[in-house]
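User: What would this chain look like folded?
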Amino acid sequence: MIKRLLAGAAAIGAIGGLGFLYYAWYPPIEPVEPPDRGSFSAEQIERGRIVAAEGYCAECHTRTDNGGGPELAGDYKMDTPFGAIYSSNITPDPETGIGNWSEEAFQRAMHLGVSRKGVHLIPAFPFDHFTKMTDQDVSDLYAYLMTRPAVHMTRRPNELPFPLSLRLLQAGWKLLYFTPGVYKPDPRHDALWNRGAYLSEGNAHCGACHTPRDFMGAEKKSAPYDGAVVDNWIAPPLNEHNPTPTTWTEDELFQYLRFGVAPLHGPAGGPMSPVPHRFLSTVPEEDVHAIAHYFADVDHAAEREKHDKAALARAMEQSKIDLVGPTVDPDAKLYQGACAACHYNAAPSPVLGRPDLALNNALWLDEPTNLYQVILHGLTAEEGQTGVAMPSFYNALSDQDMARIAAYLRRTRTTLPPWTDLEKKAAAVRKTITTIPVNSSH
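Assistant: Here's the prediction, encoded as structure tokens.
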């Protein structure tokens, strides 16, 4: 009897293994000669440029360390909990890029996460979002990439330990987490909302940064847009869990995504900065409006903004107090000397280019990470609001100084509990900055 049970279990295991191999196996697609630029119309190439900008292709496929690298030639380092991953060269170089990929092979990679050679792609490449893109958008993107300058550059090998380095296991990840299929419009919403949802959920892959991940590196479907840690910054929640006292309305979102600064919430910094400046500032305005329209619905802006007037008044009052009369609070004096001159605002609302910290995400998040990053890194004239810079205080403020400023702002600008271990956390964030900013204040 036991032998029969063991034999049955072995047979089931063998059948299951064969079934998994059948599911996981994809044949190679034959290489092609790099297509001639003349085979694509100027209109299709321009449409592809827009698709590439709305998907931020150059952001993850251009090396930034070791002196940088040619655009779209890959080798961008992505640090993950599983090890470092380096992006692919997506220029039309036939040897080190995708120059010998047919459009069929490119479509398969975008929609199914499988390379031309039949190898499963690591989901650091967000094919779980790109699968929602239409065939036309993928075709236009192919036309754009195949007409870029070909760059012969090999990326560094991924640093994934065994057995995570086995690409076949990625098929198991897909079996658990990946549902292929083009975005289907929601009939309960209008065309603008659906356009915004299509872009946000698909090509723009907003959830890849703003949704927390589980132990397998998959986005938590139970917590969409709840915020996550990205490149040593916190990508804040994009839903109703965003803690700022004034609502991210459709107009605030549009201003932020199009121009890099929202009147009430301040400038885009860190990994978010290139999104408005390099990419969304170059696409049709109606697409940015669509994304803003979609997320204003996701965060229930219409229901929440009734509290904004009172929150704004409180913020302006506290900002005025900082510069009126002497203070005996040593932390307040430190803040006045380092920050208040540029962050002071008066009623009725903040001046553009002078962000009010009481309304900024950085003070309302669970950790002071983003506040410390901005203090240490600063903002150049190309980041945040165009032409407005904030110096780095990397050399000017110690970890203890930053901890005092953070504690002061948290208790005077928010209604939330104090942060803990502030000096220790300041030191930890400082260690993530490998290059001292050139605009460092002394």
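The chain has 19 helices and six strands. If you want, I can go into more detail on any region.
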